[in-house]
Amino acid sequence: MNEMTSFDVEKIRKDFPIFEEKIHGKRLTFLDSGASAQKPTVVLDAVRDAYTHTYANVHRGVHYLSQKSTELYEGARETIRAHMNAESVDEIIFTKGTTEAINLVAHSFGLMSLKPGDEILLSYLEHHSNIVPWQLIAERTGATVKAVPINNDGELLMDQFTSMLSEKTKIVAVTHVSNAIGTVVPVKEIIDLAHAKGVPVLIDGSQAMPHMKVDVRALDADFYVFTGHKVFGPTGIGVLYAKNELLEKMPPYQGGGDMINRVTFEKTTFATGHSKFEAGTPPIVQAIGLGAAIDYINGIGFENIAAHEQALLSYATTQISALNNVKIIGQAKHKAAIVSFSMNGIHPHDIGTIIDQAGVAVRVGHHCAQPLMDFYDVPSTVRASFALYNNRDDVDALVASIKMVQEFFR
What we know:
Helix content is about 40%, strand content about 15%. With about 400 residues, it is α/β, with parallel strands linked by helices. It contains 14 helices and 17 strands. Helix 3 packs across helix 10. A hairpin with a 4-residue loop joins strand 11 (about 260-265) and strand 12 (about 270). The protein has a 7-stranded mixed β-sheet, sandwiched between helices. The chain folds into 2 domains: about 10-40 and about 300-410, Alpha-Beta Complex (Aspartate Aminotransferase, domain 1), CATH 3.90.1150; about 45-300, Type I PLP-dependent aspartate aminotransferase-like (Major domain) (Aspartate Aminotransferase, domain 2, 3-Layer(aba) Sandwich), CATH 3.40.640.
């Protein structure tokens, strides 16, 4: 698909049927893409067509529908390989989402590699899905989880990272973009520093993939994970990229059909490459939908998307900062289009409920980042997360709805 020569947000909005809906009789202002993004018609059509015209189980079938379904499913894998610039399709493993992908690495690579006294290095910016799996593995192996601190702007303290990286560190697992406050983490620097000490790195790219082009070979990431529903694809699909040399050493995460070479009651030998980690019937149609989503955003172009979103972020930050009794949480120099805020004396759930009546959808809560909320000494925040289909009208609607909250609690 050819990249758009100019960014036309109104044309893009027409690609998303959800924006024809009215919420409480109001125009929909959807600012919750960080939780799950809306779906363009091309993705909906790809899913419907797969179920309607070509659906069958993949790989072992010799009949036409199975062959066609396999072609589309594996075609989606190649689309994602090319998008991430992985060396081989064997390095692209389909999972249910980021959470399963991290659990796969933790339970396979982690159990294989960790022993008592070893350290797993995370950061204060992590989503629970990049904390809890490592804690579970640490309990089983005797390893210790440590977290790199941040400053008040929400930026990782890189001098602290460097000092915490030691011969005890056996894996570093950090987010690329904070889901709660939008900080863009210098993952290339982290990878280079870790590799200098022979430490592999996992990057949680769930919040990065909708906003920026990710080249896993340029980053030299050992593991890179993301989830499909945040990048305008279906739910129930995610991706684990892992270097071939690591996959060859890692034991299977789950056992079942399609991940085997030969099964007897005495012994089972396993498939190689991605197949070893895809037990059972895979998320066939979801993968096809994700491939369509990746094609769609590549057609728009990440330079166009980034420029549009950064302009929105700047406008939203300026407008919200000007409001009385509103505090933006996280003001890193490098941010994705996320604005997280609180209002003194007003619970975020009350804020979210009131502004919902204006048709404004935001996320309220701890955003599965309770250690980060503890750092800022807040129980939760209101999070407005922007995507390629948002415009200035959305920012204006958010600001007007916040003023409604101020009036209500005046």
